[in-house]
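Agenda item 2: nicotinamide-adenine-dinucleotide complex prediction
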Amino acid sequence: MNILIAGGAGYIGSALVPRLQDRGYSIRVADLLWFGNHLPAGTEVIHKDLFDIGTDDLKGVDQVIYLAGLSNDPMAEFSPSLNFVYNAASPAYLAYVAKLAGVRRFIYAGSCSVYGYTVNELYDEDAPAISKHPYGISKLQGEKAVIQMGGDGFSVICFRQGTVSGYSPRMRLDLIVNTMFKSAMQRQEIVINNPSIWRPVLSIDDACNAYVRAIEASEDISGIFNIASGNYTVGEVGDIVRNTLDGRLGMKVKLTIKHVQDYRNYKVSFERARNTLSINPRHDVEAIVDDLLAHQEKFADMDNPNYYNIKVFETLKAKLK
Ligand SMILES: NC(=O)c1ccc[n+]([C@@H]2O[C@H](COP(=O)([O-])OP(=O)(O)OC[C@H]3O[C@@H](n4cnc5c(N)ncnc54)[C@H](O)[C@@H]3O)[C@@H](O)[C@H]2O)c1
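Presented output:
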């Protein structure tokens, strides 16, 4: 099976591509390489903007996975206008061309950010999604655009992912567990901005498994699915990261608790993904910390600006206009 992965050179893609190649899939990546190319040698890469992808680029492609766009709130806040172009218009355009080219399934990397600030109830996919901030709004717009193109032999699966964490060859240290790991290792301190805020956390390993399940699901399945390894408060994540590092390395990590207002707070049900796609998360926060420890020499230069999306984006933005 031939799969085109848009944004496949990013954090999730760089872990997913080798997993899929291992499973025998033929992978073509379309990516602007904002963060470089950390894909296995020999991976086919179309180095261009998704708006320049045409049906020719999609010839023979069975499925498309969309992992592109601006992938966090700071990037979206830095340039709300580019955010709406890259996160809302770009998936709409790519799904349109993919369907035209005869692609049979489109898998979209959405976000639980669409839920915004909720009332501490467990949200399923039918609960209100009313983010008031550029990233969450645009991820919902991208999702709505691609889901409405489903039908006539074109299956659309949208994942609303929790915050992903763990090691990828294209590393990010601006994601909840990874950020805490970094500051614990560098400064023996974890700063918790608001311990009561709920966040679904998704290990990168569970994320990759979810994409495999979606690719291999029966063709008549479409829909929106929350994807997470577990729901945690930020305070609990801090405790687990600290306790795991203290236990494994004999450290004495200090927790600094603040009470800063956050605009995202949500916990989600992932029963639909379990029941429909057989997506069963297996990696909790402790397992994520162990994964980071196992690979720590691969990102020992923890202040490298490439690990922080906003730092790269600030320097890129002028070229993107
Ligand atoms: N990482 C997370 O915690 C998380 C959580 C929820 C949702 N998501 C979504 O998952 C997707 C992947 O996240 P990630 O962490 O791997 O992101 P990332 O920022 O590491 O990678 C994004 C990749 O897309 C490429 N790209 C962006 N716009 C492009 C365009 N117009 N044309 C071609 N290439 C383009 C970039 O060069 C980069 O390689 C994103 O859509 C993000 O919104 C991520």
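Discussion summary: The pocket of nicotinamide-adenine-dinucleotide is lined by residues 7, 9-13, 30-35, 49-50, 67-69, 71, 86, 90, 109, 111, 161, 163-164, 170, 172, 175, 309 (CB under 6 Å).
Owner for follow-up: CH.
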